[in-house]
C-alpha cells in the first residue's frame, strides 16, 4: 500500500469481540432482521417508525427530497409535547415517574408523567399569556433542573421554536445566539449549583440584553434564592406567572416540517451555526433509535443520560426520545466530583439505574481518578452502557465494560452529530457482537459509507471520509438564516452527499471505526495518521488514562507527533524520561514506528470544550510554540496556561 494515496492510514487492529449474551438477545427490542427489513424498502421502514408516534393528521408523502433539502412525512400534523407527555397519561400511565431529579446539593424531586403534563400545560398557558406563539423563538438558558425540560416542552406545545443555550456559556455567546435567532423571550434561572457552590445566571442575561435584541420578557426560575437584580416590566418570576395558570391546555397541531428547535454548534473559529430540526422526522428517529439502541423497557428501566440539555444529546436522549418512549429517567444538576468523586455511582445505586449513557471524557476521567470510587457502590442494576461524543479508546471501552458494567452489560458506542439529530451508527444490543472502540455499523434505515478523497468507497481495511449518502428523517433542515452556508458546509466536499468532517476506517470485517475530525489528521512523512489511533495506543498503556496528540510542524517529517498524556490514579509506572521512552516504544509496538511521538508531555488536564471534546487546535499552538489561539470555548480557561508552562520547563530540561 502506498501511504501517499490513502486518505487515512489504517494502523491499529483489534481482535477482541463481545457477542451478545443469549439472555440479553432473547429480551432485546432489536432483532437481526431489522437490517434486511429496512434495506428492502427504506421509506416504508421509516413510515413504520413514524407510525409509532401520535399524529393528528397522517402524512401524504414520506419523503420529498430536493437535495440538499429534505421534507419528511409531508402534510402530516403533530405536536411534540403531546407525544412526549399527554399520550402516556391518556394510556393510563400518569403515575409512572418521568424524572427522578437530583440537585447537586442533594435536594430531590420526583415527577410523574401526570405531574409533568400539568407543569407543561401551565407553562404553555403562561407563554401564551405573555404573547408567545408559533411565530416566536425562545432562548432557554438554564441549569439542568426540571423547569428547563418543562420550558422546552411548553415551547414545543405551542409551536414556539426553542433555542437552548448551554448554561456555561458567556453573556456574549448568549447574546449572539439571541440575535441570530431573533428570540423574543429568554427563560432562565437566578442561578444553579455546580462544584459545591451557587453560580449566577440572571446577571449574564442582563449583560447580554444590553445588546440590541427584540427580547420583550425574561422569565426567571428561582433555583438558588440568591439576590437577583430586577428589570421591572421586563423580568417575570416563573413562579408568579406559571403557578397560577390552568393545569390543562388544549394543544394545537403543527406541520411535520414546522421547526422544533434551533441548537447552535460552535465551529472552531467561525460564527456558530444555528442547526435547526423539524418536528415529524426528528421525533420519529429520536424515538426509534432510543428504543432499539438503548433497549428501553418503559415499565422497568431507570435510564440516565448524563448530558446537559444544552447539547443535542440532552435534546434527543434526555427530552424527546426517552419521554416519547415513556421511560423513567434520572437527571442530575451538578458535576461528577461533588461532593466526592463517586457521586455518579452513588446516584446509580440510589435509584437503581439500569441504563447509563455518557461520554468518553467522563469515562477517562473516572479511569484517572481510580477504580476505588466505582468499587464503593453497588452498580449491579446496570444492564446496558452507552457512549457518545468522541471516539472511545479501546482501553477506555474495556474499563467501562469491566469496572462499571461488571462484564455484564453490552456497550453501545453511538456516532452522531447535532446535525444528524439522532444516532446514525451504533451496535444494536442483543444483535451485534461489539468490538472495543468501534461504533460498528449504520443503524437499520441509515446509509453511511467511508470514501476516499474522490468520493469512491474504500474497501475493508482502509480509511477515508465518513459520508451519509441517503437522507434520514432527523437530518438538519438547514442552518438558521444561512442557506448558502448550509450547502457549502455540508454538501460541497462531495456534491450531493452529506459530509460533516469525520474521518473513519473500515476494519477487515467492515466494522466502522471513527478516527476523529479530519481537520485533526496528522501528516507524518506523507502518511495521514489519525489522532484517535495514536491516542488509543497511548491509552492502552496501563499507566495512561487519557491522551491527546497533535501534528506539530517538523523540518524533517513535515509534521511530527506531539502527545499530551494524563496518568491513571493508583497505577505504578516508571517516572519522567523512563516513562516517556517506554511510551514511545509502546506506540511503536502497537501501531508502528511511523506513529512514535516526537515528544510526550505528562499533564494534569487537557483543554476541552464544555461538552468534553479535546481542543487539539490549542495543543497544536503549544506544540508549535505559538501564542495560544482563541480559547473562549474552553471549559477551564486556566488549563492552557498550565500546559504551556509545563511544556516550557520540560524543554528547558532537554
Ligand atoms: C464526534 C454529539 C466518535 C464526531 C452527539 C462528531 C463521535 C461530533 C462519536 C459531533 C462517537 C460523536 N465516536 N466520534 N461515538 N459521537 N462524535 O454535534 O466527531 O456535539 O462529528 O454531537 O462528535 O458532536 P456533536
From TrEMBL:
Cofactor section: Mg(2+)
Residue positions where N6-acetyllysine is found in the record: 613
Record-listed ATP binding positions: 389-391, 413-418, 502, 517, 528
Residues holding CoA: 194-197, 313, 525
SUPFAM superfamilies in the cross-refs: Acetyl-CoA synthetase-like
Enzyme class label: ligase
Modification comment: Acetylated. Deacetylation by the SIR2-homolog deacetylase activates the enzyme.
Pfam families: ACAS_N, AMP-binding, AMP-binding_C
Catalyses which reaction(s): acetate + ATP + CoA = acetyl-CoA + AMP + diphosphate
Keyword Magnesium: yes
Domain Acetyl-coenzyme A synthetase N-terminal: 33-84
Keywords of the record: Acetylation, ATP-binding, Ligase, Magnesium, Metal-binding, Nucleotide-binding
EC number in record: 6.2.1.1
Similarity field: Belongs to the ATP-dependent AMP-binding enzyme family.
Entry function: Catalyzes the conversion of acetate into acetyl-CoA (AcCoA), an essential intermediate at the junction of anabolic and catabolic pathways. AcsA undergoes a two-step reaction. In the first half reaction, AcsA combines acetate with ATP to form acetyl-adenylate (AcAMP) intermediate. In the second half reaction, it can then transfer the acetyl group from AcAMP to the sulfhydryl group of CoA, forming the product AcCoA.
The protein, known as: Acetyl-coenzyme A synthetase
Origin species: Candidatus Planktophila versatilis
Gene that this sequence comes from: acsA
Amino acid at each position: 500500500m502506498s501511504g501517499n494515496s490513502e486518505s487515512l492510514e489504517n494502523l491499529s487492529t483489534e481482535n477482541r469481540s463481545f457477542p451478545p449474551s443469549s439472555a440479553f438477545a432473547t429480551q432485546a427490542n432489536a432483532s437481526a432482521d431489522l437490517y434486511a427489513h429496512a434495506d428492502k424498502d427504506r421509506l416504508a421502514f421509516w413510515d413504520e417508525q413514524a407510525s409509532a408516534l401520535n399524529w393528528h393528521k397522517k402524512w401524504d408523502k414520506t419523503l420529498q427530497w430536493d437535495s440538499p433539502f429534505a421534507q419528511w412525512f409531508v402534510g402530516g400534523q403533530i405536536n411534540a409535547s403531546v407525544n412526549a407527555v399527554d399520550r402516556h397519561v391518556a394510556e393510563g400511565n400518569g403515575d409512572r415517574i418521568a424524572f427522578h431529579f437530583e440537585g447537586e446539593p442533594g435536594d430531590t424531586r420526583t415527577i410523574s408523567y401526570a405531574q409533568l403534563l400539568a407543569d407543561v400545560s401551565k407553562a404553555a398557558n403562561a407563554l401564551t399569556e405573555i404573547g408567545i406563539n408559533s411565530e416566536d423563538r425562545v432562548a432557554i438558558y438554564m441549569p439542568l433542573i426540571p423547569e428547563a425540560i418543562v420550558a422546552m416542552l411548553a415551547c414545543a406545545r405551542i409551536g414556539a421554536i426553542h433555542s437552548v443555550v448551554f448554561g456555561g456559556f458567556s453573556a456574549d455567546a448568549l447574546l449572539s445566539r439571541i440575535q441570530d435567532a431573533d428570540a423574543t423571550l429568554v427563560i432562565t434561572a437566578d442561578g444553579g449549583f455546580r462544584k459545591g457552590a451557587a453560580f449566577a445566571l440572571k446577571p449574564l442575561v442582563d449583560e447580554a440584553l444590553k445588546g440590541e435584541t427584540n427580547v420583550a420578557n425574561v422569565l426567571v426560575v428561582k433555583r438558588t434564592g440568591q439576590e437577583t437584580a430586577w428589570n421591572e416590566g421586563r423580568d417575570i418570576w416563573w413562579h408568579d406567572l406559571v403557578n397560577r395558570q390552568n393545569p390543562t391546555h388544549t394543544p394545537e397541531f403543527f406541520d411535520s416540517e414546522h421547526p422544533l428547535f434551533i441548537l447552535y454548534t460552535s465551529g472552531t473559529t467561525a460564527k456558530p451555526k444555528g442547526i435547526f430540526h423539524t418536528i415529524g422526522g426528528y421525533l420519529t428517529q429520536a424515538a426509534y433509535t432510543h428504543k432499539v439502541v438503548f433497549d428501553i423497557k418503559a415499565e422497568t428501566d431507570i435510564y440516565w443520560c448524563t448530558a446537559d440539555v444544552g447539547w443535542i444529546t440532552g435534546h434527543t436522549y434526555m427530552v424527546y426520545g426517552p419521554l416519547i418512549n415513556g421511560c423513567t429517567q434520572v437527571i442530575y444538576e451538578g458535576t461528577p466530583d461533588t461532593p466526592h468523586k463517586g457521586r455518579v455511582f452513588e446516584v446509580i445505586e440510589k435509584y437503581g439505574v439500569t441504563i447509563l449513557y455518557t461520554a468518553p471524557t467522563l469515562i477517562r476521567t473516572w479511569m484517572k481518578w481510580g477504580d476505588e470510587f466505582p468499587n464503593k457502590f453497588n452498580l449491579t442494576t446496570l444492564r446496558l452502557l452507552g457512549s457518545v461524543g468522541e471516539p472511545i479508546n479501546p482501553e477506555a471501552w474495556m474499563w467501562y465494560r469491566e469496572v462499571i458494567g461488571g462484564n455484564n452489560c453490552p456497550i453501545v458506542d453511538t456516532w452522531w452529530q447535532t446535525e444528524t439529530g439522532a444516532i446514525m451508527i451504533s451496535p444494536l444490543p442483543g444483535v451485534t457482537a461489539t468490538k472495543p472502540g468501534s461504533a460498528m455499523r449504520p443503524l437499520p434505515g441509515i446509509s453511511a459509507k467511508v470514501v476516499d478523497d474522490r468520493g469512491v468507497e474504500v474497501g475493508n481495511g482502509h480509511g477515508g471520509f465518513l459520508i451519509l449518502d441517503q437522507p434520514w428523517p432527523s437530518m438538519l433542515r438547514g442552518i438558521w438564516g444561512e442557506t448558502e452556508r448550509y450547502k457549502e458546509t455540508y454538501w460541497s466536499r462531495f456534491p450531493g452527499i452529506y459530509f460533516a468532517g469525520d474521518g473513519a476506517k473500515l476494519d477487515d470485517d467492515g466494522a466502522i471505526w471513527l478516527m476523529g475530525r479530519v481537520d485533526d489528521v496528522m501528516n507524518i512523512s506523507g502518511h495521514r495518521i489519525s489522532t484517535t489511533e495514536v491516542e488509543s495506543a497511548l491509552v492502552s498503556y496501563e499507566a495512561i488514562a487519557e491522551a491527546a496528540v497533535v501534528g506539530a510542524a517538523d523540518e524533517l517529517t513535515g509534521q511530527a507527533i506531539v502527545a499530551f498524556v494524563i496518568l491513571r490514579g493508583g497505577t505504578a509506572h516508571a517516572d519522567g524520561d523512563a516513562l516517556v521512552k517506554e511510551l514511545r516504544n509502546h506506540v511503536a509496538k502497537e501501531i508502528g514506528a511511523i506513529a512514535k511521538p516526537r515528544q510526550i508531555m505528562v499533564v494534569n488536564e487537557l483543554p476541552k470544550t464544555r461538552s468534553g471534546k479535546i481542543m487539539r487546535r490549542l495543543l497544536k499552538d503549544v506544540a508549535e510554540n505559538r501564542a495560544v489561539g482563541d480559547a473562549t470555548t474552553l471549559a477551564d480557561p486556566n488549563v492552557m496556561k498550565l500546559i504551556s508552562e509545563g511544556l516550557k520547563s520540560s524543554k528547558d530540561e532537554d
